Write the C-alpha cells for this entry.
Amino acid sequence: MQNAIVLVVGALLEVGGLALTRMGLRTGLRERPLLLVAGALMLFIYAVVVNQGRFEFGRLTGAYIAVFFLVSQVIALAFFRDTPDYKTLAGGLLIVLGGAVIML
C-alpha cells in the first residue's frame, strides 16, 4: 500500500510539474518565470518521492508508468479539457494491464 501511495503522489507531482511548465511556455512573459520555476521544482520533488518506494528500479518505473498514465488522463481532462480518444484509451488499457502484471 505504501508503494502505491508513493507512486500516486509521484505521478501527481510529475504531471503537475509538466502542466505548470506547459502553462509557463504558453503564457505571458510576466507569469512565465514563476510557472517554469514551480514546474521545475515539482519535477525535482517528484524524482525524490518516487525513489522512496521499495521496488527495484525496473519494476518501479514499469509500475509507475501505469499510474502516471491514469493520473495524466485525469489532469488532462480537468485542467486542459482534453478528452482521450479510443486509441489513447486502448493503449492506456494495455499500459495499465502491464503495470498490474509488474506489480504481481
Remarks:
- The CA atoms of residues 66 and 97 lie 8 Å apart.
- The chain has one domain: 2-103.
- Residues 2-103 form one domain.
- The mean pLDDT is 89.
